[in-house]
Design brief:
Elements lengths: L18 H13 L3 E5 L3 H6 L11 E3 L5 H15 L6 E7 H6 L2 H10 L4 E6 L25 E2 L2 E2 L8 H7 L4 E6 L3 H13 L4 E6 L3 H4 L6 H10 L6 E4 L2 E5 L8 H5 L14 H18 L5
Parallel strand pairs: 1-2, 1-3, 3-4, 4-8, 7-8
Antiparallel strand pairs: 5-6, 7-9, 9-10
Helix pairs in contact: 1-7, 3-5
Length: 295
Amino acid sequence: MIDEKILFTAGHTACAGCAQSLAARLVIDASGKNTIVVNNTGCLEVFSTGYPYTSWRVPFIHSLFENAGAVASGVESALNYLGLKNNINIIAQAGDGGFADIGLQAFSGLWERGHDILTICYDNEAYMNTGVQRSGTTPIGTNTTTSPVGKGSTGNLRWKKNLVDIALAHRCVYVATASVHLPVDLQNKVKKALKIKGPKFIHILSPCPLGWGSQPEDTIEVATLAVETGFWPLVEYENGILTKVRKYKQLKPIEEYLKLQKRFSHLLKEENKEILAMWKQKIQENIKKYQLLEE
């Protein structure tokens, strides 16, 4: 017997320790049954909708890798034309490859046109579904299959795109970051976003044991350390104004986060201390930008 309140069911084929599957369940359970989901191609679509089965107990549309934003915009426009939109939530979502890279143009159009849609990026920081290639949200120094560490390379060369700032530049009415280790916080942000009319964006960090080289049982700890080291600040913006920041008396050393992931093991070696220093500088920038430390 399936609990009627659970809208993302077991039986999918996500890897052990997959944070994306946990995040998806938290999101849809918070959204409720009167929700339509539009999902770009990616891990989440593949492991949750293997024909002829689905883990989604709400209407679910699998679009192409690049156009969830456009498809969701059409769904919202049709519901408005029919006078049905007020009672239905629309979520357009993708992984980081389908959101920050391939699908960014369509999501940009959705935001710019002001559609009343919640957009979500489940960020596992690489193209995990096709072989752990670097994406636009892969952090600097990351070892991936297309930014391999070797004699002439120390991993990915660039910092990840700041999707929060990109969404703010589009004047999204609500923008937030979230993490699976704080499920109540994540669900409260989803519920809050859906109550606000206009384009919304939530950026969810989604640790991937396969691509990150972490242990499945460490997923929650990895997510926790991402936040508690200052790498992944938890923030909320409403109409462009920073309204809420999760603060700490003291942040943990970034090394505690990096050492749990094989993709970063080389950064803890003496010869790569300059890249580690870049990480620490970025955290200092986050501390200053978001006032992460309690006074």
